[in-house]
Amino acid sequence: MRQVLVVGNWKMNMLRADAVDFIQKAEGRIRCEAWVSAPFTLLYEMHRNLKDPDRLRIGAQNVYFEEKGAYTGEVSADMLKDAGARFVILGHSERRMYFGETDEAVSKKTAVLLEKGLIPVVCCGERAGEKDAKGFVAHQIRTALGTVSASDWNRVVVAYEPIWAIGTGKTPSPEEARGMIAHIRSTLVETFGDAAEEVRILYGGSVTPSNVRLFTENGEIDGVLVGGASLKADSFVEMVNAAAMPAAV
Ligand code: PGA
Question: Are the beta carbons of 226 and 235 closer than 8 angstroms?
Answer without folding.
Answer: no
